[in-house]
């Protein structure tokens, strides 16, 4: 026996439709949470990542001691949170003696763990420690430039994976139109060695140059840290294939009343509504316009005048 | 210094990748490293900006608006692709028969009142309650209420429609294409003959059941593999404590103590020590309260305070009871 449950509220219905799977996806939301123990630097890292992704991120501040992303049973809590907050990327921070300042960045497919990368944070410099001209500060939610430097990103497996995950994390929304005046931030990731990456966040200053393209100048603004890759887990082949599938580019918007013919080309249909004969204003009804009436009046006046003359004459 | 210049630029993502750079030797100071990284970064971003600013732009209020090309780096989706809805039974039938959908008007002309009324809802056309007279036909049975019959027919039609709708949704759910705002919930199905809904099991009950199941194993569930987060079983049931195999026969010898306790109970040398005072007091109090209740029912008086004065007398009585027994045993020995 089954019962059909539909939302009785328009608001709830709209929320559900927002969370439904779509053909073309917009940006992923990020979930930031921590484990049993965190250090001061890790707290700073997590709050700054939250700042950078203010529009599309959810921050949990309590400790969660039953989350172990790399163990088979320890992901249930993460999947539950992902389901409830509708987040597909998570950043999990924890600190232990064996893995100090540990950050696990993971992605979800259909609210199940897709892949994971574990990095350690070293040499973290927070936003406050940078001095710069406050006017250049990048605005919240602007689309960033992302630059990857280093052959490590091409050769080393783990760095390749990290590159993909960082791109997903830092990207923001996928937009079609972009305002060139609003480009003011950039992330630079350099592969220093085969397992270390230097990540920094900079503001962009556009300087006049001779051509249309302005000269870029980067000023370090935001957090900068060294990421040491510790562990990573790639997705299963089958799952990866399924997740990478995209809908073939279908003509999304079908223009109505337009069809194309091989011989004649594009044909359009125009629909004219029925003429309401009874309601149409009679063209002759306008006051004072009728020529015949005017002429008839004139004639009458003339006739009367002539009649009077006749009478007078008689 | 890299000699080749081809950066991999993805304008759709505002991404630039330089796969050819490598630090020949790590710069010693951190500042130099940072500077070097920023330089490389600037070059890359300049490359992206080159392609970006050369795209055709339209003027907007805030600034030049540019239409970005779709991104070239493929990233995994976050949710599965939405499956198309399967056609419902009616849609299949209509397609087979060639029935076209007709656009319906919002209002209809109502013959009875001579006004335009809506198709459904409050104050609608052809409402059952607006019919004043139903003419009797030859096929009608006497004693049957035609108005009630009309209402029943409508109810049946509505139920049939609901059933069909449920079937369509179940079919869609089977293919994984349920609409996002619909949820199919399984209502409780009573397996027993009664109509009572099955009782909801609480967390504690489940834990107890797990413990009970564990005791059926040979080792009493002690070595069962536990799930992550499952708490170890609380000490349940009798657990025997065995004496150590090798022990001295001095004062602290537990075996001696054990046998002594048993003997004392049997022989009852110190019979007054055998008495369980607490238990005796409780038994007495219970008896007294019962008596008081009975008296209350008859008289309506409460005599709880007077009970406290009597216990000592009864104690002696009990000790006295044990007395003749113990003397008997002594005699038997």
From TrEMBL, chain A:
Pfam families assigned: Brix
Annotated signal sequence range: none
Protein localization: Nucleus, Nucleolus
Superkingdom classification of source: Eukaryota
Keywords: Nucleus
Cross-referenced PROSITE patterns: BRIX
Composition bias type Basic and acidic residues, residue spans: 292-314
Protein name in UniProt: Ribosome production factor 2 homolog
Species this chain originates from: Hibiscus trionum (Flower of an hour)
TrEMBL record, chain B:
Keyword Nucleus among record annotations: yes
Functional note: Involved in ribosomal large subunit assembly.
Keyword Nucleus: yes
Alphabetical UniProt keywords: Nucleus, Ribosome biogenesis
Subcellular location: Nucleus
One GO cellular component, as annotated: nucleolus
UniProt name for this protein: Ribosome biogenesis regulatory protein
One Pfam family cited in the UniProt record for this chain: RRS1
One GO-annotated biological process of the protein: endonucleolytic cleavage in ITS1 to separate SSU-rRNA from 5.8S rRNA and LSU-rRNA from tricistronic rRNA transcript (SSU-rRNA, 5.8S rRNA, LSU-rRNA)
Biased composition (Basic and acidic residues): 222-233, 322-333
Ranges of Basic residues composition bias in the record: 309-321
Region (Disordered) location: 63-89, 137-165, 213-259, 279-333
Xref: PANTHER family: RIBOSOME BIOGENESIS REGULATORY PROTEIN, RIBOSOME BIOGENESIS REGULATORY PROTEIN HOMOLOG
Similarity field: Belongs to the RRS1 family.
Database matches in InterPro entries: Ribosom_reg (IPR007023)
């Amino acid at each position: 026996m089954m019962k059909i449950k539909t939302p009785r509220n328009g608001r709830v219905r709209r929320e559900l439709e927002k969370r439904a799977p779509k053909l073309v996806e917009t940006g992923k939301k990020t979930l930031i949470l921590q484990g049993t123990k965190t250090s001061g630097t890790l707290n700073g890292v997590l709050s700054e990542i939250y700042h950078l992704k203010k529009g599309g991120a959810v921050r949990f501040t309590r400790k969660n001691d039953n989350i172990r992303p790399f163990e088979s049973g320890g992901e249930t809590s993460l999947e539950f949170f992902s389901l409830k907050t509708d987040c597909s990327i998570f950043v999990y921070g924890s600190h232990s003696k064996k893995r100090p300042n540990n950050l696990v960045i993971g992605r979800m497919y259909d609210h199940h763990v897709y892949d994971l990368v574990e990095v350690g944070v070293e040499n973290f410099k927070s936003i406050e420690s940078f001095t710069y001209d406050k006017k250049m500060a990048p605005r919240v939610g602007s689309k960033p430039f992302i630059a990857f430097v280093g052959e490590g990103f091409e050769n080393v497996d783990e760095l390749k994976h990290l590159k993909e995950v960082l791109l997903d994390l830092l990207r923001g929304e996928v937009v079609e139109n972009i305002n060139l005046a609003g480009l003011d931030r950039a992330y630079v990731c350099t592969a220093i060695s085969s397992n270390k990456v230097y990540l920094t966040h900079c503001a962009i200053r556009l300087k006049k140059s001779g051509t249309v393209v302005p000269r870029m100048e980067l000023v370090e603004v935001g957090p900068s840290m060294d990421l040491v890759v510790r562990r990573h887990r790639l997705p299963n082949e089958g799952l990866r294939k399924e997740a990478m599938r995209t809908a073939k580019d279908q003509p999304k918007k079908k223009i109505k009343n337009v069809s194309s013919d091989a011989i004649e080309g594009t044909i359009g249909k125009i629909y004219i509504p029925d003429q309401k004969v009874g309601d149409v204003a009679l063209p002759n009804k306008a006051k004072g316009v009728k020529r015949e009436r005017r002429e008839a009046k004139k004639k009458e006046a003339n006739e009367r005048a002539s009649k009077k003359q006749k009478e007078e004459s008689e | 210094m890299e000699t080749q210049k081809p950066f991999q630029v993805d304008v759709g993502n505002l991404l630039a990748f330089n796969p050819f750079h490598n630090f020949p030797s790590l710069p010693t100071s951190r500042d130099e490293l940072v500077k070097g990284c920023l330089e490389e970064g600037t070059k890359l971003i300049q490359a992206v900006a080159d392609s970006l600013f050369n795209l055709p732009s339209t003027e907007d209020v805030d600034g030049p608006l540019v239409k970005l090309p779709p991104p070239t780096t493929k990233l995994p989706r976050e949710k599965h692709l939405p499956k198309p809805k399967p056609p419902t039974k009616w849609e299949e039938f209509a397609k087979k028969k060639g029935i076209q959908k007709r656009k319906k008007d919002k209002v209809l002309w109502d013959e009875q009142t001579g006004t335009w009324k809506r198709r459904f809802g409050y104050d609608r056309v052809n409402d059952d309650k607006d019919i004043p007279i139903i003419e009797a036909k030859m096929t009608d049975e006497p004693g049957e209420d035609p108005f009630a019959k009309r209402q029943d027919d409508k109810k049946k039609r509505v139920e049939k429609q609901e059933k069909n709708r449920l079937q369509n949704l179940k079919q869609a759910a089977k293919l994984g294409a349920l609409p996002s705002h619909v949820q199919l919930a399984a209502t409780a199905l009573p397996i027993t003959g009664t109509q009572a809904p099955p009782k909801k099991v609480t967390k504690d009950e489940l834990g107890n059941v797990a413990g009970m199941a564990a005791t059926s194993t040979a080792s009493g569930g002690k070595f069962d593999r536990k799930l992550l987060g499952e708490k170890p079983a609380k000490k349940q049931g009798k657990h025997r404590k065995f004496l150590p195999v090798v022990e001295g026969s001095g004062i602290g010898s537990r075996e001696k103590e054990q046998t002594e306790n048993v003997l004392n109970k049997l022989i009852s040398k110190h019979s007054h020590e055998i008495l369980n005072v607490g238990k005796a007091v409780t038994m007495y109090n219970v008896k007294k309260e019962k008596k008081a209740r009975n008296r209350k029912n008859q008289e309506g008086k409460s005599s709880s305070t007077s009970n406290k004065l009597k216990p000592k007398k009864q104690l002696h009585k009990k000790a006295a009871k044990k007395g003749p027994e113990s003397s008997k045993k002594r005699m038997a020995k």
